[in-house]
Each structure stands twice: as C-alpha cells, then as structure tokens.
Write a structure and sequence with these properties.
Layout: H1 2-28, E1 35-39, E2 42-45, H2 46-62, E3 67-70, E4 74-75, E5 81-89, H3 91-95, E6 102-109, E7 112-120, E8 125-130, E9 134-137, E10 140-141, E11 154-157, H4 165-177, E12 181-183, H5 188-196, E13 202-208, H6 210-222, E14 226-227, H7 235-238, E15 240-245, H8 250-256
Parallel strand pairs: 3-5, 11-12, 11-13
Antiparallel strand pairs: 1-2, 3-4, 5-6, 6-7, 7-8, 8-9, 9-10, 13-15, 14-15
Bound molecules: D-MYO-inositol-1-phosphate.
Length: about 260
C-alpha cells in the first residue's frame, strides 16, 4: 500500500501540472474562458469543465478502481479511495483576469486526507504533501509561520455568497479587534497552502467545500500546523467550516471566527 500511495502522490503532482498548463492556455485567451454564473457571485467558465474533464480522465485511466468527486460534475463519496478535485479554485479571479487561481487535487484513503496537490500555474508553484511524510513547495520543505501573537498575525478570512455577509463582517470585526490583520484573496486552496508555507498565519471560513480545502489540509498538518476535523464535521457531504493555522494562532483565530 505504501508504494501505491507513493505512486498516487507522483500522479497527483503530474496531473496537477497538466491541469495547470490547460488553465494557463485558457487564461491567456480571455475570449475562450466562456464566463457564466451558477448563482450570484458564483462564476462558472467553460475552462472549469474542460479542466475537470482532463483531470478526471487522467485519474480514471491511472486508477480505475478509485472514486472521483469533482466540483462541477460531482461523483463518488466513498472515502475508502477517493480523489477530490477543484478544477479551478479562485474561479472569480480567473474569470476576471486576476492571476491568482489554482488546481486542487486531494486523495482520501480509508477516511483520512492522504495526499494534497495544489498547482498555481501563473507562479509555477506546486504545493505537494503526503500524510506522515512531507509537505513541499516546488520540492522545498514547507513549515508554518512562527508568529506567536495574534496581534501580529496576518490571516486570510474566506467568504462566499453561500453564507450571509453579516456573519463575515462579524468575524472580520472580531479578528481586527483582537489585533490581527486580514485578507481575502479569493482562492481558498491557495490561502490554505500559504498557511502551510508560512506566508499566512491562518485561514478561516465558516463554510467551504471539500474540493476547496482537503488538499490544503494535508499540507498544513504536515508543515506543523493545526486544522479542524473537516471530514469528521461532514464536510464531504455538505461542506463545513475550515480553520487552520500555526499551532499558536489556531486558537485565537478559531475564537475570532466563532469556530471554537
Ligand atoms: C471558492 C474560493 C473562495 C472561497 C469559496 C470557494 P471557487 O471556490 O475558494 O476563495 O472563499 O468558499 O467556493 O468557486 O473559486 O472554486
């Protein structure tokens, strides 16, 4: 099994790069993006479908026995051996010409987040992690930040139109009142990968979907950080809150976000 997980880790990295190459091509030709909306502020592009098709096809060909769940087309929820894919995370950025988006691929094995691969094609950064083994950015080991005071912390607070804006502004108010600074850059997957790489001290969002956060969760844990039990909270079915951070920022951020 160990060898099988190693093979899947390499495959996740290669598939993420192939998906990123396709994203880059679409992004270079804005007219090809094909922008529509799933709901208010919920962008969908033709590129999302094309990238998901490519990724699902590559995974099904390499690992026909595994389940696959994608943001756009759905799929299996059998966590014995499940690939969870966000073809373009940061779709609103992608659709409006802002170069901050990525492909996110997670592999869940026997109910646990096992592998995470997130590729940012515009910065050529591949974030890759395997549970109990490593978390790297372009091959360099990642480590969460060393910030110890919330009053000096920089955190990302995610928000989507799935939740009322009032709940978000309350979290922002509590975070700022406790002295931390916040940002919302529009890609949950990259926001969480940045926590693993020590670029950000924490990430919180009161509702996020599995394809946006499972890959990043593996990274934060392997880079020495803490995360909530997203799968245990039923995140695969309906989405759930996400909370992650370095070991000291995790708790004050969780309190500010009303998640602890
Ligand atoms: C969204 C982004 C956003 C996060 C939302 C997600 P999408 O995913 O990750 O940053 O706050 O919760 O839905 O629509 O860009 O794939």
């Amino acid at each position: 099994m160990t060898d099988e997980i190693a093979r899947k880790t390499l495959a996740a990295a290669a598939i993420a790069r192939a998906a990123g190459d396709l994203q880059r091509k679409f992004f270079a030709d804005r007219a090809s993006i094909g922008m529509t909306f799933k709901g208010p502020q919920d962008y969908l592009t033709a590129a999302d479908g094309a990238v998901e098709k490519l990724v699902m096809g590559m995974i099904r060909e390499a690992f026909p026995a595994d389940g696959v769940l994608g943001e756009e087309t759905g799929g299996s929820k059998d966590t014995r051996a499940l690939w969870v894919i966000d073809p373009i995370d940061g779709t609103a950025n992608f659709a409006t010409g802002i170069a901050h988006f990525c492909i996110s691929i997670a592999y869940v094995h026997e109910g646990r987040e096992e592998i995470g691969a997130i590729y940012d094609p515009m910065r050529d950064e591949l974030f890759l992690a395997r549970r109990g083994a490593f978390a790297t950015c372009n091959g360099r080991p990642m480590k969460v930040s060393a910030t110890t005071e919330f009053a000096r912390a920089q955190v990302e607070l995610g928000w989507s139109s799935r939740r009322p804006i009032r709940s978000y502004t309350e979290i922002v108010e509590r975070t700022v009142a406790a002295g931390a600074s916040f940002r919302r850059a529009g890609s949950g997957a990259l926001g969480i990968a940045y926590v693993a790489d020590g670029r950000s001290d924490g990430y919180a969002e009161i509702h996020i979907n599995s394809w946006d956060c499972l890959a990043g969760i593996v990274m934060v844990r392997e880079a020495g950080g803490r995360t909530n039990d997203f799968l245990g909270a039923g995140g695969l079915d309906e989405g759930a809150p996400i909370l992650c951070g370095n070991p000291t920022i995790y708790e004050p951020l969780g309190k500010a976000a009303g998640l602890l």
